Amino acid sequence: MNGTNVSKAILERLAAELSELTPEARKAATYVLENPRDVGVSTVREIAEAANVKPNTVVRMARQVGFEGYEDFRTPFREAIRKGAADFPDRARWLQDIRKSGDMGALLADMVQETLRNVEDTFAAVSADQLEAAANAIWNSRNVYVLGVGINNSNARNFTYLATTGMVQIHAIPRPGSTPVDDLAWADERDVLIAITCKPYRVEVVEAVSIAKEQGMTVVALSDSPASPILRDADHGFTVSVETPQFFPSSVSIIALLETLLSFVVAVASDEIPQRVATFHKRRHQLGLYHEE
């Protein structure tokens, strides 16, 4: 949190005025300066207890540096957490603090706002030409490998599941009991790797992209920063926005972009895909896999 502009400015001001505080308020300020991450996830009583002072002392400290009280003082630190400038445990504690305060409506509003913003920001940076170029590479390949680990494993498998209704040689990796680099052992310039990872970047994915490039594969990469190691090596790179008040990255824009990419693959494909999709679903109906009244 120290790296965010607002909270950093508060900490700098607090440090500058430290000598002007009363001895008790100085104890509270010292604790805040040494443990800034605690402010956004702790009540005034929790901070007071940790600093070994009374809650009123913490309030006076906040007023000393220009705030109406502790809640006003804490707001920039909470906002930094909401925007992702904290690690996962801190953000989880912040969510629990919202529940304690009964402010669930604000959480809902934040989730909706960030979800819509993620989708808007992601597609604002994507052009139809980019999607069409990636789609052509995918359709014209021999094999397509879709790689995601952690939360992105389910995103990769969801894309693969949808694509297999019309595409034949598409594989979600890592396969059970395998590793991504093993799954790519015999891939070459005829094949495509779709790789997904966001901060903190997974080593398995970064290594797989590096191996894929060495073997001449075409790489389609989805990540959350233009500086991402997998975007730097990608033939077709897409930056996705994954901000959320939650303690984990959002998958909404990743799923939306993957679904859009798949729609472009269908659009550039031959008549084979529509025919395969029709056959796939006809067989499902014949086998009674869909509930019918």
UniProtKB/TrEMBL annotation:
Q: Does the keyword Transcription apply?
A: yes
- Domain (SIS): give its ranges: 134-274
The record's SUPFAM superfamilies line, in alphabetical order, gives: Homeodomain-like, SIS domain
Record keywords, A-Z: DNA-binding, Transcription, Transcription regulation
Q: Which residues does the UniProt record annotate as the domain HTH rpiR-type?
A: 8-84
What highest taxon heads this organism's lineage?
Answer: Bacteria
Could you give a single Gene Ontology term from the biological process aspect?
carbohydrate derivative metabolic process
The protein's GO terms of the molecular function aspect are:
carbohydrate derivative binding; DNA binding; DNA-binding transcription factor activity
Question: What is the protein named?
Answer: Putative HTH-type transcriptional regulator YbbH
Question: What species does this protein belong to?
Answer: Pontivivens insulae
The gene that this protein is the product of is: ybbH_1
